[in-house]
Amino acid sequence: MGPAGSGKGTVATRILDHFDMRHLSCGDFIRAHIRDNTDMGRQAREFTKKGELVPDDLIAKIMTEEIKKQHNQNWLLDGFPRTEKQAALLDSLDPPDSVIDLDVPFSVIVDRLTKRWIHAPSGRVYNLDFSPPKQPGLDDVTGELLTQREDDKPEVIKQRLQGYHAWESKLADYYSKQNKLHRFSGRETNVIWPVVYKYLAQHLPPKQEMKTYMK
């Protein structure tokens, strides 16, 4: 759990480096459907371009399809579930053992996302502070123009964060009652990550010792 820009993708990548599991990213699946112009992708595009959340029933359809493919593998869900209804559906399919909640101030998130630019054809992501392109506005590999996702523009980000706050508290309460919610707070992913690793290593055998990541 965690709003867009809280570092879910980065933390997920590090978990996958250190622990044996499959990453199931709701955002990646939605973007793939949009990119492939599927029926579900066309429906999702109408909401994402306005900064609105994709409806529960569409999210559930996409994620149910993916979860059923896992065949008893360990998995890491990213961005799903986001409502009590979705959480109940997940419990009926394959209940999670633990829920990690990344708690990052909204002011930090707005600053991060407004400085994020992408090379749309490849998916390469740049941040003007932490990983800027070698030449401003151009992809390092192809030299093509970088673009900013519609949902990374300041006015859309604020709408997304407001929407997230509206449902996050209910979902947190849902998992708190099951004693599955574990919240990790901080302003930087490199501060949050070691605590997440320590927690997971108490329950899963790591593939390797924790790497140290520099700012």
TrEMBL record:
Coiled coil: none annotated. SUPFAM superfamilies: Microbial and mitochondrial ADK, insert 'zinc finger' domain (SSF57774), P-loop containing nucleoside triphosphate hydrolases (SSF52540). Keywords: Kinase, Nucleotide-binding, Transferase. It holds the Pfam family ADK_lid. One of its GO terms (molecular function) is ATP binding. InterPro entries: Adenyl_kin_sub, Adenylat/UMP-CMP_kin, Adenylat_kinase_CS, Adenylate_kinase_lid-dom, ADK_active_lid_dom_sf, P-loop_NTPase. Residues 116-151 form the Adenylate kinase active site lid domain. PANTHER family: NUCLEOTIDE KINASE. Belongs to the adenylate kinase family. This is Lethal protein 754. It comes from Plectus sambesii.
